[in-house]
Amino acid sequence: MIREPNALDVLYLIAAARWTLALTALAFVGGGLSGLLVMLMRVVPARPINWLAIGWIQAIQGTPLLAQLFVFFFGFAIFGYRVSPWVAAGAAFSLYASAFLAEIWRGCVEAVPRTQWEASAALGLGFGQQLRYVIVPQAFRIAIPPTVGFLVQLVKNTSLASVIGFVELTREGQITTGATFRPFTVYGIVAILYFCICFPLSQLSRRLERKLNVAH
Amino acid sequence: MIYQFNFRDVFAQFDTLVDGALLTLLLSVVTMAIGLVIGIAGALARSWGVHPLRLLTAAYVEAIRNTPLLIQLFIVFFGLPSAGLRLDAGTAAVVALSVNLGAYAIEIIRAGIQAIHKSQVEAGLALGLSRLQVFRYVVLFPALKVIYPALASQFILLMLATSIVSQISATELFHMASILQSRTFRDFEVYIVTAGMYLAMALTFRLIFALIHRAVFRR
After folding, report:
1. Secondary structure string (H, E, C) spanning chain A
2. Mean pLDDT of chain A
3. Per-residue pLDDT at A8 exceeds 80
4. What local confidence, expressed as pLDDT, does residue A212 receive?
5. Domain span at residue A24?
6. How far apart are CA B195 and CA B100, in angstroms?
7. Interchain proximity B67–A183, CB inside 8 Å
8. What is the tens place of the pLDDT at every residue in B114-158?
9. Backbone phi, psi, residue B5, to 5°
10. Residue A1 lies in a domain
11. Which residues of B touch A149 (CB under 8 A)?
12. Does residue A125 carry a pLDDT above 90?
């Protein structure tokens, strides 16, 4: 039965937005940890390991997220696991984020002047110590604005999880549209909700960039 | 039980995927062209336009950049008919993708224009160039040179994002993949092959963009 969209629908949409946020958080934590690993593999002075990391980054950045989601969703099934959309989406988004975060953070590590590496090497620090005491503390400041910027991408991209049946904001929008047959209104509200999440993050990223650039 | 990979069924109907890939390429190239035009016009309006026009452009850029492409696509394809504008899947895809890419292109090109020092423009005007000539030779060309890498990677991201229009049944590569999946029931194989095709297209685009860069900006 078709009915008019009402205030309760809007509430349901807002409630669904928390699953968008939860999936983003899951992907950011999972992607952050694995991205750190990929970034280290990318900068460590050992060629074969560098190539491995480059191959990974190219493969993820050169294929659509939608394809990655499907490969994961069906890939688990091959090994005999029937996984929930949470596991499939969480894993796929984490690995997606790992490649992008690794590349962003590598740029930040390389933005630290070469002389800092040389000076710390001259002081007798090993590779791990150089990273820990000299490079990472400086790269961290540079890394904050683009990382927040990527977070916006991540929030938006979680909308694709709706395709494998993960009920978040977009999927809830589809369900509500099915019941009310008012796509313009419903998707308009969905878009506004995404905007309310993403716009403050975008502004924060921009402000941090300006602030940290001045300090440079 | 050990899973037996079976790529034979997929490659037996490989031409289905090739058809899809051709449409993906067409969709990408058309969108890139429109997006570039929107980007240049918008960056011009955003940097040098009258005040209301600047605000309007800024609002457009922020609205698009802070909402998912999938929702933009749904609004164009499912939402606009209620406003009396009914588009077929292919047209809706081009409209949504172009509007999306245009916003990113404006922001990228604007950054390039801001990197051109004001004194350059003044010098150009002092040399007797018209405003249009100044924009073309002093601002736009050097600006595009600066932001070319960013624009190129945005274009490649767009090519990958065309997979999303499969959700409104535009018959590009990803949609063809799902048709092939329902015919063969070889889910994993179909999507691995499809991912490989996207990777090949992304690397090809990167190569082409590098060649264009060398041909146009080597000076």
Report:
1. CCCCCCHHHHHHHHHHHHHHHHHHHHHHHHHHHHHHHHHHHHHCCCHHHHHHHHHHHHHHHCCCHHHHHHHHHHHHHHCCCCCCHHHHHHHHHHHHHHHHHHHHHHHHHHHCCHHHHHHHHHCCCCHHHHHHHHHHHHHHHHHHHHHHHHHHHHHHHHHHHHHHCCCCHHHHHHHHHHHHCCHHHHHHHHHHHHHHHHHHHHHHHHHHHHHHHHHC
2. 92
3. yes
4. 80
5. 7-215
6. 23
7. no
8. 888 889 999 999 999 998 899 888 998 889 999 999 999 999 999
9. -70, 140
10. no
11. none
12. yes
Tokens representing residue A17 in the block: 């937005």
Nearest to B191 among A58, A71, A184 (CB): A71
Which residue in the set B1, B82, B163 is minimally distant from A67, CB to CB?
A: B163
Per-residue confidence (pLDDT) for residue B10, from 0 to 100? 83
Q: Which of residues 49-88 of A touch B (CB under 8 A)?
A: 58-59, 61-68, 70-71, 74-75, 77-80
pLDDT band with cut points at 50, 70 and 90 for residue B219:
low
Q: Where are the alpha helices (DSSP H) in chain B?
A: 8-12, 14-48, 51-65, 69-74, 89-114, 118-126, 131-133, 141-161, 173-184, 187-217
The DSSP element (H or E) to which B128 belongs, if any, is: none
A160 CA: distance to closest CA in chain B (Å): 7
Question: Predicted ipTM?
Answer: 0.90
CA B75 to CA B60: how far, in whole Å?
Answer: 15
Say whether pLDDT at A216 is over 60.
no
What architecture does CATH give domain B8-217? Orthogonal Bundle (1.10)
Rounded distance between C-alpha atoms, residue A176 and residue B156, angstroms: 33
How close B86 gets to chain A, by Cα (Å)?
A: 13
Query: Which amino acid appears at position A150 of this protein?
Result: F
Residue B117, phi-psi category: left (phi > 0), alpha (psi -120 to 50), beta (remainder): beta
A33, part of any domain: yes
- The reported pTM is 0.91
- CATH number of the domain where residue A209 is located: 1.10.3720.10
**Range in A189-203, B50-64, B182-196 with the lowest mean pLDDT:** B182-196
| Cross-chain Cβ contact A182/B82 below 8 Å | yes
The whole-number average pLDDT for the span B193-219 is 92
The overall average pLDDT reported for chain B is 92
Q: What is the 3-state secondary structure (H, E, C) of A24-84?
A: HHHHHHHHHHHHHHHHHHHHCCCHHHHHHHHHHHHHHHCCCHHHHHHHHHHHHHHCCCCCC
Which chain A residue's Cα is nearest to B79? A184
The total domain count for chain A is 1
DSSP symbol at B55: H
